[in-house]
Amino acid sequence: MKQELHNKLVDKKKQGKKSFAVLIDPDKVDVASIEQILELSIEAKVDYFFVGGSLVISTHLDECIQQLKAACNIPIVLFPGSPSQVSKYADALLYLSLISGRNPELLIGQHVISAPFVKKSGLEIMPTGYMVIDGGAPTTVSYISNAAPIPADKTDIAMCTAMAGEMLGMKLIYMDAGSGAKIPISEKMIEKVSSHIESPLIVGGGIIEPEKAYLNCKAGADIIVVGNAIEKDASLIKEMSAAVHSGFVKI
Fold first, then answer.
1. 18-40, pLDDT tens digit by residue?
2. Which of 41, 91, 83 is nearest to 66 (CA)?
3. In this structure, is the dihedral angle defined by the CA atoms of residues 185, 188, 191 and 194, taken in order, positive or negative?
4. Is 196 contained in some domain?
């Protein structure tokens, strides 16, 4: 199984280098908005495009990815909300297991159904322990998953959940407060989790200011994902990328 992109993530973590990913929901973009995102992302040296959403009711996932591919060499990672969100045109797939919830369908059920198709896709598959953290507002991911998020102040639960996911073989841990979260994940929780795992840590949800992206990295996040804020103001890409790529010493 391919591990090229994952190996690069691990190497960057060892070197203390942080990455910035722009999240693109195919339901919320068109050709013109993708062109704007592309131009700004190339200029800002964005590290990854994450493509996907909790629903994705449109039918142009492939077209969206092909448009990105035709214009740049930025790796495209699928961030699927369902087994149907798989495209052979991407570079890798976050194979998400919702380890923060107790819904068996999202722990293993949907994976059993999608496994043959995913295997044939030729994508690099990255097993990812997905943890939904309470962001202070109901989110699509919480509704769709039918699972309660980890309370924002329960850092020990988050830590133990991430540790369990890693020991079960998850190659990445993804902490997400959800699209449109009112309260982003605290630096305290990020620091607690990052200090107890060796896997690269992805953090997203409710990050609307470059300073928050910087502080998350300083606390131990390895990849910062921003989507909703960029949908509202694409010019944030440059500032967010600069904040994530700033040098600092982990606290």
1. 999 999 999 899 999 999 999 99
2. 91
3. negative
4. yes
Residue 250: pLDDT band (50, 70, 90) is very low
Task: Give the C-alpha separation, 180 to 136, whole Å.
Answer: 10
C-alpha 175 chain-centroid distance:
8
Residues 6+ away with beta carbon under 8 Å from 94 = 50, 77, 78, 79, 80, 126, 128, 130, 172, 174
Look at residues 210, 207, 202 and name the one whose alpha carbon lies nearest to residue 243. 210
What distance in Å separates the CA atoms of residue 210 and residue 27, rounded to the nearest whole number?
25
Rounded Cα distance, 80 and 106, in Å = 12
pLDDT tens-digit readout, 167-202: 999 999 999 998 889 999 999 999 999 999 999 999
The angle subtended at Cα 229 by Cα 223 and Cα 230, nearest 5°, is 80
Structural domain includes residue 251: no
Inside any domain, residue 249: no
Separation of alpha carbons 214 and 59, rounded Å: 35
Distance CA 184, CA 95 (A): 23
Structural domain count of the chain: 1
- CATH number, domain of 31, equals 3.20.20.390
Q: β-pairing, 223-226 with 92-98?
A: unpaired
Q: Say if 226 falls within a structural domain.
A: yes
Query: Who contacts 140 (Cβ-Cβ below 8 Å, separation ≥6)?
Result: 53, 54, 55, 178, 179
Domain span including residue 13: 4-244
